Amino acid sequence: RGDGFVPPSPADVWEHIKPVAGGLRIEWDENVKDFEVMEVITENISVCRTTTPSAFRKIISPREFVDVVVTKQYEDGTMLSAASHVEHALCPPQANFVRGLNYPCGSFCIPIPGESNKTQVLTFFQTDLGGYLPQTVVESFFPATIAGFYSNLKKAVKTLKS
After folding, report:
1. Percent of the chain with pLDDT strictly greater than 90
2. The CATH number of 2-160 is which of 3.40.50.720, 3.10.129.10, 3.40.640.10, 3.30.530.20?
3. Whole-angstrom distance between the N-terminal and C-terminal Cα of the chain?
4. SS (H, E, C) the chain
């Protein structure tokens, strides 16, 4: 779980994290190499494939994740992206990637009452990286990854305002 505050409005933050092909996330999130929409089910539900570069001094090989992704905007302005692993005929495992699994996870961009240029970003990650990684490697990888997510997001949205 990650929880932090980012200076711009929820709409600006959402532009950086929303799960869309060609979106800004592949530009700033060092853990997202590519993001593809494999199938659009409805306006707010799609099946997506995310690939990651190798990580942790190349101890962790590139991964791919296939998820059903749901997005929603609530009346109070909160924006949500939720995902969970799914098998999909259009996305068989690729030889150059280890197939990882996302258990139910998501990101919220939450408006802060009275502070229109500040957003609470609440994230939940439950990921099985797959492959043959020692649990100690996995446990040491995730805290730095979550901290990096927030640090890089803050830098990315700051350049939007520059």
Report:
1. 70
2. 3.30.530.20
3. 30
4. CEEEEECCCHHHHHHHHCCCCCCCHHHHCCCCCEEEEEEEEECCEEEEEEECCCECCCCECCEEEEEEEEEEECCCCCEEEEEEECCCCCCCCCCCCEECEECCEEEEEEEECCEEEEEEEEEECCEECCCCCCHHHHHHHHHHHHHHHHHHHHHHHHHHHC
Residue type, 88: H
**pTM over 0.85, yes/no:** yes
Report, as an integer, the average pLDDT of 97-101: 94
What are all long-range contacts of 143-148, with beta carbons under 8 Å and residues at least 24 apart?
Answer: 145/31, 145/55, 146/2, 148/30, 148/31
Question: 155 is written with which tokens?
Answer: 């830098």
